[in-house]
Amino acid sequence: MWASSSSLRERKVLVKEMAQVPAVYVLGGYQTDFARNWSKEKKHFVAMMREAVLGALEKTKIEPGDIEVAHTGNFAAELYSKQGHLGAFFLEIDPAFSGLPTSRHEAACASGSIAILAASAEIEAQRYDLACVVGVEQMKTVGAGEGGDFLGTAAWYELEAKGIEFPFPKLFGKLGDEYDKRYGLKDEHLAEISTINYANGKLNPNAQTRTWYMNYEHAMSRDEFNGSIGGRIHISDCSQVTDGAAALLLASPAYAKKWADRMGVPLESIPRIKGWGHNTARMRFEDKVAESKGAEYVLPHVRSTVTSAMKRAGIADVSGIDAIETHDCFTTSEYMAIDHFGLTAPGESWKAIEAGDIALGGKTPINPSGGLIGAGHPVGATGVRQALDSFKQVKGEAGEYQVEGAKNVQTLNIGGSGTTSVSFVVGT
Amino acid sequence: MLAATRAAAGGRSSDLLSSRSIKHVVVLGANGAMGLGSGALFTTAVPRVTFLARTKDKADGGLSAAVKMVRSSTVAKRVDTGSYDADFDRVVGEADLIFEAVTEQLPLKKEFFDRIDKVRRPDSIVATVTSGLSINQLAEGRSDSFRKNFLGLHFFNPPNVIVGTELIAGKDTDPKLVDFLDEYCTKLLGRAMVRTADTAGFAGNRVGFKLLNECAILAEEHGPLLIDELVGPYTGRALTPLATVDLVGWDIHRAIVDNIYELAPDEAHETLKLPSYMADLMAKGVLGRKTGAGFFGKDDGGHRIVLDPKTRKYVPKASISRPDLSFIDEIANLHRVGRYVEGMQAFAAATGPYAAIAQKVIAGYISYSFHRVGEVTDDISGIDRIMGYGFNWAPPSVLVDTIGVRPTIQMIEKAGLPVPPALANAQEGTTFFDDPQVNVGKFFVAA
Asked: Of the candidates B44, B73, B335, which has its C-beta nearest A223's C-beta?
């Protein structure tokens, strides 16, 4: 009795009192410029890992020898670069990493967040005091068609991607179709999402699309410059093919205290991962949709990821969240995120768009960084980039894309067609 | 500080942007590469852009190329096209900004400015995209209001890809206009602006074509293939030097270096003299890629051929043997895994006659750049910005920071070149590059 709505099981969220678990502090991080093409630079992805990790160390004034454990998030280096075993590449970054415990984590586009989860779990378990997480993906090693086929392995390849040109836009086009069927969906609202993400990306000096041309009129155009990639998904609805890495340094309370003293800042000023959510839905998109038939939310497991992260952070609802960094691999996924975060009632995401709530300066800005559409989507790096941007927001270090007074920022990182979802609340 | 390049002091961005308004731009020469590329850029931010050329057909051709550059047909709605004969007086009279991108010839540009002066509104801006002609000279004989509102706005080709842009004020240009246009281009056109003095070649071409011409001179003895490998991507550039000259065109290269050679005799004067073999070949119609071949080309069978400057003839690339350049391979391998500092330190430490050639060119680039501070820009960061954002070359400061101050000085001394005082006086450990937004690793291409 799998594919029926009656089988949808609400997973109980066992939320431990935060006091029982040591806090995980975010000391800082670094993101590479997502506009770079590392294949044109003739670089190996380890160069990208190296720049991100050394950048994070320099930014936080931490010596490499202080890092006790390292986690790499990466989706498909085996395909893009014919190379596995990415944890071990940490040792190519600095001689001080000799002997360092490392591992690599994969959950499609959620790989980066899974790496953060693993690192924070080890800090909570008091195994280590300072962990380095790096998310990395080099995608421009191959052409668009081949890359699209590789990305198909994030779905059930044999059933949903094999022999299909650009399978993922088609899957997320179906997400739009499902919204349309249940609640109605207008292209105008998707175009607005794209417009906002590109506009925000122009404010982000690391965004891939910061010099690209985009506005609502273009997002609504339908000629050869903005053709359909799959059903209702047009070029302007898509996130980018991106080379990039992002690194984050996570610390135990003991290390964070020591570091805060050294830096001359109060411990309370250092952001923490206040809550997390993590769920998995069935691989095939049609199974997900069948499961949620008649339910309020189109992707209920995504909804519980978001709410359990808030619950663990002790935040009642989205009104306690100042900004969101969500997984807009396509405009339809952000459209889905709007109601799944609870910004509107289910099916009414368009209301938040029309009210201006999600734009920079709105009630709950979504993707001030530009998100996956504006900033770029190096698959395995995205979850780490989202957490890093959340960190920058709560520290007031986001420059021109700063959300004024942000205290709590929440991420949503999704692997596959809503299959693995991870959410963090980063705040002070 | 150079008066001409002085930056806005304390002016707030929003105040500056509201101090003027650009609602209509007229592009003159809108069928040429720079005209249509700049026009494409303006269509992304300006409500109305007029493309003008000798005929309306040519202007229409410029527009369709511009649409392809922007990759959106929506911009065409904001564009009208016309010819100099039928539309010039009317549209120039309406424009807030008149952007001149006609052929790089002083008398021709003067002719256009004369016409503009007669019909423009007294408050309209007149900008020229000249890559080397003097702004003050271009402004000579014009009305007071023209000279006050006239400046150089040097985009690099293609402007929708390369964001580095030089802003050059003349002696009579209104400083408030310079501040406004700097802010406007930064905020609305996404430009990385660099203010330069009105000197030959401004900052980018002065420094950039000095290196390119030096490579062309060296090619006479060593051959283009070897020189392009010695001063190749691993020294901090995407495209090799002589392939760059082929791409921009030998005629453009000549116009730029001749201009600098004539007007700016400096400590590297001889490196700016066009080699005679290039002049000979140009007389026979060789202009680089646009004529099929320059330093490099392909024979009728599609096989790569390389110029032998000594004989003025082409030889098959496959017939040229590569000497032992293992130092380059080692450096490229370090760059490939992100170990740029080790790579460039190995560069400075490399020995042998070939390494010495490469070191001399790079040392010359650094020395020449630092010696231009105070002459073409206020500080080294202006030159750094235009070399990074305009040429996509490792800026001189990035090279110094990566190689280290001491080894850089040694490299300059070994090449017999003057050590810039800024380097001689620097403490060990001093860093020069000051743009935290730039990933310096991107310049060190692993080839």
From this structure: B73
Structure tokens at A32: 């590479």
Chain B residues touching residue A210 (CB < 8 angstroms)? 190
pLDDT score for A344: 98
Give DSSP secondary structure letters for B242-288: HHHHHHH-HHHHHHHHHHHHHH---TTGGGGSPPHHHHHHHHTT--B
CATH class of B204-443: mainly alpha
Which of 3.40.640.10, 3.40.190.10, 3.40.50.2300, 3.40.50.720 would CATH assign to domain B3-196? 3.40.50.720
pTM: 0.95
Share of chain A above pLDDT 70, in %: 96
Closest listed residue to residue A414, CA positions, set A168, A199, A96: A168
Residue A199 has pLDDT above 80, yes or no: yes
On whether the CB atoms of residues B155 and B190 are closer than 8 A, the answer is no
Q: Is B33 on the interface with A (CB under 8 A)?
A: no
- Please check whether residue A425 is in contact with residue A283, taking contact to mean a CB–CB distance below 8 angstroms: no
Q: What local confidence, expressed as pLDDT, does residue A245 receive?
A: 98
Q: What pLDDT digit, counting tens, does each position of B53-82 carry? A: 999 999 999 999 999 999 999 999 999 999
Contacts of A42 in chain B (CB under 8 A): 233, 332, 335-336, 445-447
Residue B117: pLDDT above 60?
A: yes
Q: What value does the mean pLDDT of chain A take?
A: 95
CB atoms A205 and B190 under 8 Å? no
Q: How far is the C-alpha of A358 from the C-alpha of A220, rounded, in Å?
A: 19
d(CA B40, CA B132): 22
Domain containing residue A252: CATH number = 3.40.47.10
CA distance linking residue A234 with residue A173, whole number of Å: 9
Residue A265: helix, strand or coil by DSSP?
coil
Q: In this structure, is residue A92 part of a structural domain?
A: yes
